[in-house]
Design brief:
19 strands, 16 helices, alpha/beta
């Protein structure tokens, strides 16, 4: 059978989709290639969140096609994912060497379409149509790792939903992923149980807005078209009812929490609107739900947040942070921030800087605003010059790095628990693990430590990395 190489761009959702496609292909007899240079099929799983990600994928495919077609003309080339969904047939029109374009609701069709191409039943295939029930098709896992690493996986991603109803003005995701569609709790728990039975110790629940799991279309396209801000329930108005009327997402976490043998639960990526008191309380109540929260703020300016259609204020975001740290004092908190959104003034940017200093994020992912086709922000006035965006990005990055260094340095001399995931990708002589608050820890270990929960003493720090003392782990 042919061999397949899949290169993934973008988020953890894309990583999970690529893994599922790879697993489905292996189940049908395909093998996984180590690189595009030896593969019979090369698939690029693409991202559309920023223009830079799209250009990287297009340039990569151009280079692959130019090199491979000279020597191996029968190699099948294809695009998967968000850019495939948004551009469709245009990708083949632009790159005639491409044979396959598969959208975000058709990943599970990849093996069948490749079979058709190899059997000569089809030559060029483009499928970006919506498909009912596609949210339940991404469930296969490569439990034995990659072709180079045959050891069992310790951590796993589980997709619990597809789509997004938020319609932030800068974001193309609702158009490439569709509206929210959630799997059943029973289906998700069954997948998690299977993973744990195969040795997985930590599960990360995935969704575009994972905290919207199980909700109906209350914030859907109608609100976007009419220009209304989504109505976000505030914990202060709901009071103690939230503790008895738990959200579907908290109910899901509770169900996964009951799985015997599972040690840790994480989730990403949420939205501040999903942090009701029931979720905050779950952190204090459920020991397997680790004290780690990735909470995208995007801007510290109320004016910019409203232009972004984010549905919360600066003060509401700070209130969530205070409650989370009250529930779990050691909470590790990271965020996403956009620099240079249309109309962002120096004063607006200053508010973002001050919010970062007030919150003291453990780390943050900074993005230079990039206009996306057909999104409202792309047509907004006062687009920020690239030179201004670059300068603000550099200032914010320096602030985040300074805060992060202080936060990481505070771990030196402390003992902390890690879950050992396997050898370090950069130095196979070292083992790597993560703290409950999601800090990477490197230590001199061995394969026998994979999958273990162990305490290490932190001796020094690197760039957003901790180093543990091997003497503490019983060598």
């Amino acid at each position: 059978m042919p061999s397949v190489y899949i290169k993934t761009y973008g988020c953890q959702m894309n990583e999970r989709d690529s893994e599922a496609v790879a697993s489905q292909l292996v189940a049908k007899g395909y093998t996984l290639a180590a690189s595009e240079h030896v593969a019979d099929v090369v698939l690029l799983n693409t991202c559309s969140v920023r223009d830079n990600a799209e250009q990287k994928a297009i340039n990569k495919m151009e280079n692959i096609a130019g090199d491979i077609r000279k020597h191996r003309p029968n190699v099948v080339l294809g695009f998967l994912g968000c850019m495939a969904q948004s551009r469709g047939q245009d990708l083949i029109d632009r790159l005639p060497d491409v044979d396959l374009v598969i959208g975000t609701q058709k990943f599970h069709r990849t093996a069948d379409y490749l079979d058709d191409i190899f059997a000569g039943r089809s030559t060029k295939i483009v499928d970006t149509a919506a498909e009912q029930g596609s949210e339940g098709t991404i469930r296969e896992h490569l439990l034995n790792g990659s072709t180079k690493d045959k050891a069992k996986a310790v951590t796993a991603f589980v997709s619990i939903m597809q789509g997004c109803n938020q319609y932030c003005t800068f974001c193309i995701v609702p158009y490439t992923r569709g509206e929210e569609r959630s799997r059943s709790i029973a289906d998700i728990v069954a997948e998690c149980r299977q993973l744990v039975a195969h040795g997985v110790k930590e599960i990360t629940l995935l969704g575009q807005i994972v905290t919207s799991y199980g909700r109906r279309r209350s914030n859907s396209r109608e609100s976007k078209v009419e220009g209304r801000e989504p109505e976000i329930p505030q914990p202060s108005t709901l009071g103690s009812r939230l503790l008895t009327a738990k959200s579907p997402f908290v109910q899901l976490i509770e169900a996964v929490h009951e799985i015997e043998g599972l040690e840790r639960i994480r989730f990403t990526s949420p939205h501040p609107k999903g942090y009701g008191d029931d979720l905050v309380e779950a952190y204090a109540r459920l020991p397997k739900l680790v004290e780690s929260a990735h909470l995208p703020v995007q801007s510290g300016s109320d004016r910019v947040l409203k232009l972004m259609h984010r549905g919360y204020t600066r003060e509401r975001f700070l209130e969530i942070i205070r409650k989370l740290r009250g529930a779990r004092p050691g909470m590790g908190i990271t965020s996403d921030i956009i620099v240079g959104f249309p109309g962002e003034t120096e004063s607006d940017f200053g508010e973002t800087l001050s919010l970062c200093c007030e919150v003291e994020f453990d780390n943050a992912y900074l993005f230079k605003y990039s206009p996306r086709k057909d999104t409202p922000a792309a047509a907004m006035p006062d687009q920020i010059p690239e030179t201004v965006i670059e300068e603000r990005h550099a200032r914010l990055l320096e602030t985040i790095n300074d805060i992060g260094k202080r936060k990481y340095d505070a771990f030196v001399g402390r003992q902390t628990q890690i879950l050992v995931e396997g050898p370090s990708k950069k130095n196979s002589a070292r083992m790597t693990g993560r703290t409950r608050c999601n800090k990477i820890v490197l230590f001199d270990g061995a394969e026998r430590h994979r999958g273990q929960l162990m305490d290490v003493k932190i001796t020094r720090t690197g760039s957003f990395t901790l180093y543990g003392d091997p003497a503490v782990v019983g060598f």
